[in-house]
């Protein structure tokens, strides 16, 4: 079992058995070989930053 992904920004935990299919909307990023997750809300809020490849420290 892998631990449940946690949003790297707000700390929300992903719930894999969500009936809304919300878990599928999570965004996985690879940064310097490390895996990072963003919950749907944070992903939406920062989609521009993600697309611009800004470092997360800039948020
Ligand atoms: Zn979040």
Task: Give a description of the structure.
The protein contains 2 helices and 2 strands, in the order ββαα. It is globular, with a radius of gyration of 12 Å. It has a two-stranded antiparallel sheet. The N and C termini lie far apart (31 Å). A hairpin with a 2-residue loop joins strand 1 and strand 2 (34-38). It has helices at residues 40-45, 47-52; strands at 27-31, 34-38. The chain is an alpha+beta fold and 59 residues long. The structure holds zinc ion. Residues 7, 9-10, 12, 38-39, 41-42 line the site of zinc ion (ZN).
Write out key terms for the chains shown.
single chain; 59 residues; alpha+beta; two-stranded antiparallel sheet; 2 helices; binds zinc ion
Mean pLDDT: 78
Class from helix and strand fractions: alpha+beta
Poorly predicted sequence stretches spanning 5 or more consecutive residues: none
What coarse outline follows from CA principal-axis ratios?
globular
Q: Report the span from N to C terminus.
A: 31 Å
Give the arrangement of secondary structure elements.
Blueprint (H helix, E strand, L loop, with lengths): L26 E5 L2 E5 L1 H6 L1 H6 L7
Antiparallel strand pairs: 1-2
The protein binds zinc ion (ZN).
